[in-house]
Specification:
By secondary structure, the chain is mainly β. It folds into two domains: 83 residues, Chitinase A, domain 3 (Roll); 48 residues, Thrombin, subunit H, CATH 2.40.10.330. 2% of the residues lie in helices and 38% in strands. The chain contains one helix and nine strands. Strands 1, 2, 3, 4 and 9 form a five-stranded antiparallel β-sheet that branches. A hairpin with a 5-residue loop joins strand 1 and strand 2. The N terminus is likely disordered. Keywords: Isomerase, Rotamase. Its EC number is 5.2.1.8. It catalyses: [protein]-peptidylproline (omega=180) = [protein]-peptidylproline (omega=0).
């Protein structure tokens, strides 16, 4: 008789792991706007793998996955406060053209700026008027309700490296 169990005596086929703390999750996902426009997806590439609770996914995306097993296909609506936050007018700043150095600020371009602590902050140029440049430091998806479609491919205990 063949024995497929590992050395700990656990038969991997007999236990379906569920998404939760200490688990490594492999899944395909598609992130959509309210009008069904696809913002990001792994469908045309390798699936994403992460450890539940490691900070790779915002909590609003991670929490609905808890308890799912391999093979689950789900669709979740994520409101702005659980996704990338509400749009905040205070995150729109007016800079001088000189702040861009050699680079020419143009509407729609994204630039990376360092804050006082040296943290990189991406900002999108909203408007250029003379020497004054309006830059939006909100996340591009701030204020948006998103649809998060997932297909869980594998759930297994995370291995520490």
């Amino acid at each position: 008789m063949s024995d497929d169990r590992n050395r700990a005596g656990h038969d991997p086929a007999s236990h379906a792991y569920t998404v939760g703390e200490g688990m490594e999750v492999t899944l395909h996902f598609t992130l959509k706007l309210e009008d069904e426009t696809v913002v990001d997806s792994t469908r045309d590439k390798d699936p994403a793998t992460f450890e539940f609770g490691d900070g790779n996914l915002p909590p609003g995306f991670e929490h609905p996955l808890k308890g799912l097993e391999a093979g689950a296909r789900e669709r979740f609506t994520i409101p702005p406060e659980h996704a990338f936050g509400q749009h905040n007018e205070q995150n729109i700043q007016f800079l001088k053209r000189d702040d861009f150095g050699d680079q020419e600020p143009e509407e729609g371009l994204m630039f990376s700026f360092a804050d006082k602590a040296g943290t990189e902050l991406p900002g999108v140029v909203k408007e250029v008027e003379g020497d004054r440049v309006e830059v939006d430091f909100n996340h591009p998806l701030a204020g948006r309700t998103l649809t998060f479609e997932v297909e869980v491919i594998n759930v297994r205990p995370a291995t520490t490296h």
